[in-house]
Fold this sequence. Notes:
Two copies of one chain form a homodimer.
Chain A: H1 7-12, H2 33-42, H3 45-50, H4 52-66, E1 71-72, H5 79-86, E2 88-91, E3 95-98, H6 105-109, H7 116-119, H8 121-134, E4 140-145, H9 147-156, H10 165-171, H11 175-199, E5 203-208, H12 216-222, H13 224-237, E6 243-247, H14 254-258, E7 264-266, H15 273-280, E8 285-290, H16 299-313, E9 322-326, H17 336-353
Parallel strand pairs in A: 1-4, 4-5, 5-6, 6-7, 7-8, 8-9
Antiparallel strand pairs in A: 2-3
Amino acid sequence: MTLQNDLFLRALARKPVDRTPVWLMRQAGRYLPEYNATRKKAGNFLTLCKTPELACEVTLQPIDRYGFDAAILFSDILTVPDALGLGLHFVEGEGPRFHRRITSEADIAGLPQIDIGPALGYVGDAVALIRQELQGRVPLIGFTGSPWTLACYMISGGSSGDDFLSVRKWLYSRPDLVHQLLGRITEVVIGYCRMQADRGAQAMMVFDSWGGLLADAAFEKFSQPYIRRIIDGLTQSHPALPTIVFVKGGSGWLEKTAATGCSAIGVDWSISLDQARARVGSRCAVQGNLDPAVLLGTPAHIRAEVGQAIRSFGTLGEGAGHVFNLGHGISQFTPVENVQCLVEAVAEFSGQQA
Amino acid sequence: MTLQNDLFLRALARKPVDRTPVWLMRQAGRYLPEYNATRKKAGNFLTLCKTPELACEVTLQPIDRYGFDAAILFSDILTVPDALGLGLHFVEGEGPRFHRRITSEADIAGLPQIDIGPALGYVGDAVALIRQELQGRVPLIGFTGSPWTLACYMISGGSSGDDFLSVRKWLYSRPDLVHQLLGRITEVVIGYCRMQADRGAQAMMVFDSWGGLLADAAFEKFSQPYIRRIIDGLTQSHPALPTIVFVKGGSGWLEKTAATGCSAIGVDWSISLDQARARVGSRCAVQGNLDPAVLLGTPAHIRAEVGQAIRSFGTLGEGAGHVFNLGHGISQFTPVENVQCLVEAVAEFSGQQA
């Protein structure tokens, strides 16, 4: 099926565009009434992830409502540890939890060898169904958590109230075990991304949500190399697949992140887009980076901030490569009309820039 | 009284030292059994802060145990909003809470004009008593929260589970009110710092604990200028008083932070010390920056990480200026013997560097 809107893929390839493509992290989320209705129908978040028809339904909702330039698979980064037998579940208001966690070398050795197809087939099925239902309107992004970020959850047993301090302790007491675990996760993640690409994902995003907790030197040891392995693995099997790497809190390491070989880096709002472009724009595209709090503001402020970001990135010609996005997931408290305001402002201001 | 150990003040002035001075953020804290005993005696945290004899007792405990090169007043950054009538209290396991919070322009206008002496006299008394009890062993650091960080707590009504999203919303809906509030806080903070200096504080540290939540451009508008006003105000009244500004999560803005005119910047572990020194070392000293998780590791790893940090900063001659510290407060789970290991490693490795 011919792709009707290739703005997103063109921007990732740093080809000229006549306006900046836009999508938002967590665009299928709780700020949308139609999402909440589907979630209610599903009963809980995990059922929503594991039922391809429902995952497809919510994936398409923000495309239908706003005409975003890319769809992203509705899923969760913790499907991989779940498939490895840790028993993912969600406690209302407390985030993800595992029934089992990784506490020892034996736990790592005991992680099962899994066959991605059967173990995570529901994700592949969702990807295939979404592609079919999208009918070529916009490209579909698949995604994974980074090995370090997944290891954080697997060692802590769920989300953390103290920046995963108990996990970071391992870095300075049993770094060998951390590397063992990261190696195992990386193998599975490569297979997981390949499956998504085989089933129809047209770009792949790696979320290193907790990379920013690492010390400068630790990021180079415990996160960056494993992300690079994933990009290498995907480049071997799917050389044309664009990749995006987003390290939340990692604006100090844009060069190191770009050195993973990704097509684009995601940036948070701690850095201006002109600085990000100056540092890595000759090597990769840049995705980001509005503070999600902007979408809780007034239309006038939203327009001003979008305009500022677009002008900060600059021209959109050959070699440019900007994908407009937030610097983190959209807040559940975002008024739906503010997202419309953002989408229109991106089109208006970037049209002037092209 | 003659100061017997001026390593810390020499490092802040970027004069040569024969070893790197060291102290740790939150060095009087829950990892210390003697602190817990005093806290138990006090009944609760706030009484500990508000009773000069007890605040003095816990301030000196880590000096007695480890021989740190600086003492820091035991207090809390929220004493200022408390003095402004917000009613500070602590809920066990949940952090600080206020009985009242700032929700409107009327609330800001309604903040009382306070006389620092009576309103925060217990802090001044603690400073004076600590100076007396220190008997010139090491210098005493006073401190304050930054206006932005204090505003975060005052608007949210306490600590936040969502990175103060409800406060950041104000930046994009009522920035005028945020500036009004920041202006009011700044006035009080300048008086508060001056009082601490008058009573004997020998250096002043500004904690911008939540500066890192701000977008790049917002930091320049809502945090940096108000910190600069504080430094300016202190420079006018106490020109010889060294100042340290620590913006947690602000390693992207070292130059902007240095431009406040501070004597030293605190840095977290997201940046290496050689990079920090290269960026601002010609303008100010650098304090930091070990990941507090290192102190949960093994002695061998602690030594390796300390050695790495010391070598990264480099030589200690004229114009150097390194104060060894963590990149954030010490964890309550830190074994006491690991702190001893750190202190010894700093002396050993920096002695080789001098």
